[in-house]
Amino acid sequence: MFILLSVAIAPGLALFSFFYLRNQMATEPRRTLLHTFIYGAILTFPILFLQYVFKEEQIFSNPLIQDILFTGVVEEFFKWFILMIAIYHHVEFDDPYDGVLYGVAISLGFATVENILYLLSYGVHTAFLRALMPVSSHALFGVVMGYYLGKSKFSKKEKVNEYISIALFAPILLHIIYNLIFVLEDHWSYLMIPFMLFLWWFGLRKVKLAHNHLIQHLYAQKKI
What we know:
Blueprint: H1 2-21, H2 30-56, H3 63-87, H4 96-122, H5 127-153, H6 157-182, H7 188-220
Subcellular location: Cell membrane
InterPro entries: Peptidase_PrsW_arch/bac (IPR023596), PrsW (IPR026898)
Organism: Viridibacillus soli
């Protein structure tokens, strides 16, 4: 059991460390990040319950609607919603790169608990693919969400609502595309590999832009 938990948790910790250490200009309070991670972990259970109820009650006539659309929309909406009500106005959300860290934290909290439950059900032999795809994709969805939340908080007022909306709908769109590829029975890997490469490129580009915005923000405040 200890080995299984370690294997399930390791990808999330590694990915979070990667994004955390890329922020060389400021250090975000670890306690707030831990709280955000816990929010994401707790979210796993109501979301899985909601998905189970909808599946059992056969709310959607076509099961692919639930697997592709419903799952992506619900997961990303609740992560966005928690960030908006618990983190967005927090005093420690004080620079543009913070959005990336909080987005990654809540996404990896969700992905880590989901990963533990999955490995408990299907075994450790699935851990490698889980780390490469579901866990890392959740982290990158979080990067995109957090980047635009950071943009909205530190942009001109007329851009705030636009960026907040993009922070919700961009991860939803990426998640839906991911789900659509994943449910394809034939040769799905030929589409998933380029999509994951694109997702990493896109996410790392947002990380770089967020870091540049952080430098500009600190310069404007005459902290550097």
